């Protein structure tokens, strides 16, 4: 069998306060989150599916190493406000990427950086 590109198939958000983070993410992105007995919380696939051409990625220079997931939202301004109402923090106001989407960034209640993307 020949080698093939490996797609991103799952992500993990680690939390000190699981219930608080569960509440934030389920309300922020309308995600169904459940915990089968004896296992960690699982996100039930939601939304209208992945982008037509699959999930893309970016490697960029930074002063510290980090991994950031970007979640598609309908309205960046409303999403930034909602994040703050739920205990998060707006970090980056909307920025138009040349020849690309518009992005913003928030921190969840525990300080994890999360990207928002409006396509």
Compile the SSE list and pairings.
Layout: H1 18-29, E1 32-34, E2 42-44, E3 69-72, H2 76-85, E4 89-96, E5 102-107, E6 113-118
Parallel strand pairs: 3-6
Antiparallel strand pairs: 1-2, 4-5, 5-6
Can you describe what's shown?
The protein has helices at 18-29, 76-85; strands spanning 32-34, 42-44, 69-72, 89-96, 102-107, 113-118. It has 119 residues and is an alpha+beta fold. The longest helix is centred in the first third of the chain and has 12 residues, at 18-29.
Short structural summary:
This protein has 119 residues and is of the alpha+beta class.
Structural descriptors:
6 strands; alpha+beta; 119 residues
Please tell me what the overall shape is: globular
CATH class descriptor name: Alpha Beta
Secondary structure: helix percent: 10-25%
Distance between the termini: 37 Å
- Looking at the structure, the CATH topology is 2,3-Dihydroxybiphenyl 1,2-Dioxygenase, domain 1
Low-pLDDT runs of 5+ residues are none
β-strand amount: 25-35%
Largest sheet: 4 strands, mixed
* Domain module tally: 1
What is the rounded Rg?
15 Å
CATH superfamily: 2,3-Dihydroxybiphenyl 1,2-Dioxygenase, domain 1
Number of helices: 2
Return the structural class. alpha+beta
CATH-level-2 architecture: Roll
How many DSSP E strands?
Answer: 6
Mean pLDDT: 87
The SSE string, one letter per element, is HEEEHEEE
Strands in their spatial order, largest beta sheet: 3-6-5-4
């Amino acid at each position: 069998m020949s080698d093939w590109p490996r797609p991103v198939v799952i992500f993990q958000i680690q939390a000190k306060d699981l219930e608080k983070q569960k509440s934030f993410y389920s309300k922020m992105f309308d995600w169904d989150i459940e915990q089968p007995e004896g296992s960690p919380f699982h996100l039930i696939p939601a939304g209208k599916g992945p982008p037509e051409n699959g999930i893309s990625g970016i490697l960029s220079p930074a002063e510290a190493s980090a991994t950031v997931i970007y979640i598609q939202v309908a309205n960046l301004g409303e999403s930034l406000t909602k994040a703050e109402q739920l205990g998060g923090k707006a970090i980056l106001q909307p920025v138009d990427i040349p020849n690309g989407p518009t992005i913003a960034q928030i921190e969840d209640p525990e300080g994890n950086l999360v990207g928002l993307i409006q396509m």
